[in-house]
Amino acid sequence: xxxxxxxxxxxxxxxxxxxxxxxxxxxxxxxxxxxxxxxxxxxxxxxxxxxxxxxxxxxxxxxxxxxxxxxxxxxxxxxxxxxxxxxxxxxxxxxxxxxxxxxxxxxxxxxxxxxxxxxxxxxxxxxxxxxxxxxxxxxxxxxxxxxxxxxxxxxxxxxxxxxxxxxxxxxxxxxxxxxxxxxxxxxxxxxxxxxxxxxxxxxxxxxxxxxxxxxxxxxxxxxxxxxxxxxxxxxxxxxxxxxxxxxxxxxxxxxxxxxxxxxxxxxxxxxxxxxxxxxxxxxxxxxxxxxxxxxxxxxxxxxxxxxxxxxxxxxxxxxxxxxxxxxxxxxxxxxxxxxxxxxxxxxxxxxxxxxxxxxxxxxxxxxxxxxxxxxxxxxxxxxxxxxxxxxxxxxxxxxxxxx
Length: 403
Hints:
alpha/beta; Rossmann fold; six-stranded parallel sheet; 13 helices; 33% helix
């Protein structure tokens, strides 16, 4: 899988730098073209000559050293790479990248490349656990960097804990998997996803809403792109970054979401409704802020349009998936919703269960299929739940399940 692939290895300064020399050798033996970029700190541990000899390529360590006057080195190397691996990745380079700092050959190259970037941290356990480092890592993950979790064990500093760079053999396997042909069961499919809460206006400063964060829907949209789909995400108000490669349509109220969904419904092959849409809205909305008065304030509510039921009645070629976030009688309510809304699949979860409610990063769900099949998943990250759901959707599209 690595034969002929261009691997850019970025080496920063730490005792784990010696592992990067071994990694360079293994990647070269596997048939990869390896170019190495080093920081000045990395050269304090292993010389550039070592990497040059192992890779049979020049080593890049100076932004202003332009050996070829017809090009710009850090741009040319950035464009050359099929994949980038930062190993080891120190707290320093993680912090720089998280804040967009480009002050040497490595960071200018990393900000210029369009290739996938893996980061393999290596540092003292206390450094790794520091809130600033963890915050920077989360920022990088949000920007699309791919984290390779460090191992735990005896560290060069004498501490025992998490902070060991992944072993060269494991990194080679990871890069081989990166280049394996990826199954894309949603290739050429248009997936419409709704996510987040809605806000139903009371007056210019108040509204009714709910605790939905949108994380589940955003995870589904992101994973659907990876599986080959064209994705339209209709999102209520959230603080989440927009997934790359996804067309995002921002809405506020249930009525806004209904209009956006109907507009794009006919073009969709798959519709996944994760949004927590308000069932009721104020019957009257004040144009001015309602002032505080003695006694109670009564607000009359009216029903909003049931978007999922409407889609079930209108669907023709579409595969329709709904969610049932319940606090009791989970299975009963989910199955009734599956039938009444004419769904092909419903995803149910108990919002009162720890790790399975709104706003968290995990979920424990059960899939209920129209043909009567069921599948319970353990507590998983929402990314993993999204992957499991979409793989089932892919099977339904292929007719492996009869719905």
